Amino acid sequence: MKQFSPTFLLLLLFTYCSVAWAQAPAAAPAPPAVAPAPPAVVPAPPALVPAPPAAAPAPPGPTNVTAILEKASQFTTFIRLLQDTKVENQITTQLNDSNQGLTVFAPTDSAFSNLKGGTLNSFTAEQKVQLIQFHVLPTFYSPSQFQTASNPLGTQAGGSEGSFGMNVTTSGNQVNITTGVTNATVANTVYTDGQLAVYQVDHVLLPLNFFVTPAPAPAPSKHKKPARSPSGSDTSTPANTSGTTCLSKKLFQATACVMIVLAAFH
Ligand SMILES: *[C@@H]1O[C@H](CO)[C@@H](O)[C@H](O)[C@H]1NC(C)=O
Ligand SMILES: *[C@@H]1O[C@H](CO)[C@@H](O)[C@H](O)[C@H]1NC(C)=O
Ligand SMILES: *[C@@H]1O[C@H](CO)[C@@H](O)[C@H](O)[C@H]1NC(C)=O
Ligand SMILES: *[C@@H]1O[C@H](CO)[C@@H](O)[C@H](O)[C@H]1NC(C)=O
Ligand SMILES: *[C@@H]1O[C@H](CO)[C@@H](O)[C@H](O)[C@H]1NC(C)=O
Ligand SMILES: *[C@@H]1O[C@H](CO)[C@@H](O)[C@H](O)[C@H]1NC(C)=O
């Protein structure tokens, strides 16, 4: 090496680096970005369908379910539970805000007294709310609309889980309900106005959910995590590693250049 002058070495270095860096863009005309940002790849979902405007012609205040049930005079336990759980207020609000209407299955007092002793008391406060919400469908059903309803019907207790459903079967005018725990028959139409339907049922509808032990939560998956997950990216799109490879190559070449420089001036 002694016979090479530093000038020659620098020339050599310059040549090598020029070639190295010239090759890189030719081999991969990748943008300088380290990895394509996934959000750019995934098209933004279209804006959600805007909620339908509350264009209902305002009647004189929302229908009062409690008043309707009081008039029928055999729903005192159900009324008390509607009030204790505040589901009464939810019904009132929903009738005012939604144009889908509501359907309420009201068990009679004797239906409550036919429950196995201690059933109600065995429920937590949260379960009592769910129990009453389970008796409310977020859609108006006329008796004939049950014939074409597709099972299972979601209830107000469902939330986003959809696990508080019930099935209806019909035959002529008869409507039966099964929850998987309770079989009940719709005995009577207490009230209907095209927005709200209140039906008398002969059993308290117990949600199957209360009696099945929830499936064990799936074990945390041992999937390999992507080496570098761009923050905020929750898509499962695998990272495109080509960019990374290009960068590594460049890094390697740059390191080689630096090493030659060091060798030249040592
Ligand atoms: C990854 O990026 C390279 C260039 O940057 C491109 O040619 C290739 O199609 C990409 N692959 C995928 C799976 O997106
Ligand atoms: C509904 O009616 C009940 C009984 O008639 C009454 O106590 C209650 O205050 C009424 N609720 C509303 C929101 O008017
Ligand atoms: C009913 O809805 C209207 C507008 O949607 C609102 O102004 C009014 O306060 C609501 N009434 C009740 C009792 O919730
Ligand atoms: C409803 O239930 C009653 C009593 O269990 C039964 O006799 C009837 O056949 C059922 N009807 C339908 C349509 O399922
Ligand atoms: C309700 O109906 C659905 C669909 O037909 C069925 O999968 C489900 O097992 C039924 N549940 C009960 C409790 O009958
Ligand atoms: C409900 O009805 C189904 C079939 O009609 C029957 O198999 C089931 O045992 C009944 N359940 C109860 C709690 O009566």
Automatic annotation (TrEMBL):
Keyword vocabulary terms for this entry: Cell membrane, Glycoprotein, GPI-anchor, Lipoprotein, Membrane, Proteoglycan, Signal
Organism this protein belongs to: Handroanthus impetiginosus
One Gene Ontology cellular component: plasma membrane
Source domain of life: Eukaryota
Protein name in UniProt: FAS1 domain-containing protein
Family: Belongs to the fasciclin-like AGP family.
Segments forming domain FAS1: 62-205
Subcellular location as annotated: Cell membrane
Signal peptide positions (record): 1-22
Entry keyword annotation includes Membrane: yes
Residue segments, region Disordered: 217-241
Function: May be a cell surface adhesion protein.
Gene Ontology terms describing biological process: plant-type secondary cell wall biogenesis
Pfam family, one: Fasciclin
Membrane topology: Lipid-anchor; GPI-anchor
Composition-biased stretches (Polar residues): 232-241
